[in-house]
Structures are given as C-alpha cells and as structure tokens.
Amino acid sequence: MAKCVYCESETELFDNGVPVCIKCSKRREMTWKTMATLQEIRNILLHDTLEATARHNQAREEFEAIMGQIPSGLPQTDGAHWIKNASSSLSLARKGMMEAHDRLDKFLESGIVPEDLRSDFTRR
Ligand SMILES: [Zn+2]
Predict the structure, then answer these.
(1) Is residue 24 part of a domain?
(2) Count of the separate structural domains present in the chain
C-alpha cells in the first residue's frame, strides 16, 4: 500500500499520481478553498476601491467643470447652489474612496475581512 506524502499513513487514494490519504486530501481541499475565498475577498475590495476612485474622479471633474463655468466674482444664487451640490458630492465620493482604500489596506496588511463581507464568506 502507498503512503501519504504528507503524513505517511497508508492510503489507496492517489491525487495526480501522488499518494494522499483522505484526511490530508480534505485538508488540502480546505486550504485551496480558503485561498480561493481570500482571493475573492481581495478582488471584491480591489474592485470596490477602483470603483470608488472612479466615482471620486468623476465628482472632481464635475466640480471643476462647475467652478470653471462660474465667472470670477460672486456666483449667482444658482451657481452657489451648484457649487454646494458638487462640493458635497465630491466630499462624499472622497469619503467613499478613502473608506474603500482603508478596507483594502486593512485586509492586505492584517487580513481583516470587513464586517459586511464576513457573513457572506463564513456561511459557505
Ligand atoms: Zn495524510
């Protein structure tokens, strides 16, 4: 009988020609799943960060476009209203971008999975 390459217990199970016992095979499968999950989480966070950055750039462009339309001197009432709107959109977008970066950084540096993603992945 062949011996498992990991724990040397006897086994009849082969994985790609390599003898592996059921226990080690399961453990390996778990490791792959965990790695796939971590990869998935990283991709989600990366995607969120890129999206938030794109939203921020868009908001900044809109803000700059509005500022460029306002002639020098005191803006009209409408102008002031637009500036206020564009400015608050911009700070919201900036906040979102910073939060997304923060989530990604925390995950990459310390492996902290954000609370809202945690339940999705632990239930599997
Ligand atoms: Zn084994």
Answers:
(1) no
(2) 1
